[in-house]
Design brief:
226 residues; five-stranded mixed sheet; 8 helices; 54% helix; elongated
């Protein structure tokens, strides 16, 4: 049987505290269980209320869990992993998805055992419940905002900005040599009429073998400007 590789995660909230006591206790537990401590991740002087982005030790541990650099994460207590319920659930689910077990000394949680694995399953249920509640609160907030007259979505572009972008686009087309003099509404109407007449003629001569006539200059000009 291969020896389990263990990673320790320790954290204290203030610089006046030390992580050495947690490391000593966890190393003793690992020794009794025959686990090999391969890495220690520490967040000293960092509040557990901060998420993964604000805790470099936790972030490194989760990244290495994805790389399967160890088989189990050991922490002195559950509040060492985090004090925010959402962040805590995300951390536990991340470890489960990576196939990494979790040992919490003060809560006597060990997911290498059948009872401990139940913790992962219950945690997943709580995480899904929390996500559902968040979605419901967001929907309720949007509905209330609409009822109060708020307009959702991106703000509309004002006329000056829209005119500026249109003029810029036309200048770029002219510079590329793809412009033509068929942008006025009269020419557009003639082109649309020409295309409609051509369609009608083709429908009327569906049974004949007569070759369709090539488009005239107006149609070519229209296509060139597309």
């Amino acid at each position: 049987m291969s020896v389990k590789r263990a990673a320790l995660y320790v954290r204290v909230s203030t610089d006046a505290q030390t992580v050495e006591n947690q490391i000593r206790e966890l190393r003793q537990v690992a020794g009794r269980r025959g686990w090999d401590v391969v890495e220690v991740y520490s967040d000293a002087g960092i509040s557990g209320a901060k998420g993964r982005n604000g805790r470099p030790g936790l972030d490194s541990m989760l990244k290495d869990a994805s790389r399967r650099k160890f088989d189990i994460v050991m922490a002195w207590a559950i509040d060492r992993l985090g004090r925010s319920l959402i962040d805590l659930l995300d951390t536990i689910q991340h470890l489960e998805a990576c196939g990494v077990d979790l040992y919490l000394d003060q809560q006597a949680i060990d997911t290498t055992t059948p009872m401990g694995k139940l913790v992962f399953q219950v945690t997943g249920a709580f995480a899904e419940f929390e996500r559902t509640m968040i979605r419901q609160r967001i929907k309720a907030g949007l509905k209330r905002a609409v009822a109060q007259g708020a307009k959702l979505g991106r703000p509309k572009i004002d006329g000056v900005t829209e005119t500026h972008h249109t003029a810029k686009a036309e200048d770029e087309i002219q510079a590329d040599g793809r412009g033509c003099e068929c942008h006025d509404s009269g020419q557009e109407t003639q082109i649309i009429g020409f295309l409609q007449q051509r369609h009608d003629k083709q429908d009327g001569n569906a049974g004949s073998h007569r070759e369709p006539s090539p488009p005239d200059d107006r149609f070519s000009c229209f296509c060139a400007g597309m």
